[in-house]
Specification:
288 residues, mainly alpha, Transcription Regulator spoIIAA, TIM Barrel, 3 domains, 11 helices, 48% helix
């Protein structure tokens, strides 16, 4: 493994047989309302930031939060997007609300990424995934959607069932004066899921999401988003990164070429990152 701070680093590491480790930040709340902190994080290797997570923040609204927010980007959020463009930090639109997404598109001078989102076509009404209209808008601006492997992201019926489980757990934890983030909650959650039947999805269904994006907008705008460290349940045959060959096999069965698969695995994402780097150089030249 080696750190990677640029597309050039990734390419050089790959030629040496080294796995690259670029860094991102999931939730812009850590910026703490200070644009100068973006420079701080950039210097320490952060190359993408997910603007929000499970709650609205001072940047934008979250797709998970039912409370009234900014109805998109806040005034500060618009400045955050512009400064990320200037520095060369990719804007990540996963987790944010639909209105926030469209505000990002309007305010960003670079393509943006959805680092771990899937297709709402398969999970109707769930804002955490992206609608076909959003995917088209994303790719009209040369961005990329990177498919989340979480079972709830892949299958609408599984999502509904799992949502019920998490609501039950919320009540159980509240009765014990606990929340999901508390250390004591882990055993309760583990015990709960060991006693319930969990609906499974198959690795082939992940390939269906990729195929949907390709048919909708083309081969150049989709990638792997995984989210192995963020979801509890993953598809059968895709439980960790060692099983990527199973997903690639599903793509081969659908008729995808090796060139297509290379784009999905890495080239599409690196294209976006490279364009973000080039735009940052141009913006900084204008300043000078």
């Amino acid at each position: 493994f080696a750190m990677a701070y640029s597309v050039a680093d990734v390419t050089a590491n790959f030629k040496k047989g080294i796995i690259s480790f670029p860094m991102g930040m999931e939730n812009g709340t850590g910026i703490e309302g200070d644009l100068n902190n973006l420079q701080y994080f950039y210097k320490r290797g952060i190359r993408y930031i997910t603007l929000a997570h499970s709650k609205n923040n001072y940047i934008c609204d979250s797709s998970y939060d039912d409370e009234p927010g900014w109805n998109g980007l806040s005034p500060f959020g618009k400045e955050v997007v512009k400064e990320m463009n200037r520095l060369g930090i990719m804007v990540d639109v996963s987790h944010i609300s639909d209105s926030s997404f469209y505000d990002v598109i309007e305010n960003s001078s670079t393509p943006v990424i959805a680092s771990h989102s899937s297709c709402r076509q398969f999970t109707p009404g769930w804002e955490r995934n992206m609608s076909d209209e959003m995917i088209k808008t994303l790719t009209d601006h040369n961005g990329i959607i990177m498919i989340n492997f979480g079972s709830s992201f892949i299958d609408g019926e599984v999502r509904k069932t799992n949502s019920g489980h998490w609501k039950n757990l919320e009540s159980i934890l509240a009765a014990n004066n606990l929340s999901f983030g508390d250390k004591e909650s882990k055993k309760i959650i583990d015990d709960y899921f060991s006693d319930v039947e969990v609906m499974e999805v198959n690795v082939s269904q992940v390939a269906d999401h990729i195929d949907h994006v390709v048919k909708l907008v083309g081969i150049d705008y989709v990638g792997f988003g995984s989210d192995f460290d963020g979801v509890r349940h993953v598809p059968k045959g895709l439980s960790d990164v060692s099983m990527y060959p199973n997903l690639i096999y599903e793509m081969l069965k659908k008729g995808y070429s090796e060139e297509d698969i290379e784009k999905i695995c890495s080239e599409n994402f690196l294209r976006v990152w490279k364009e973000v780097e080039e735009t940052a150089k141009q913006l900084q030249l204008v300043e000078d």
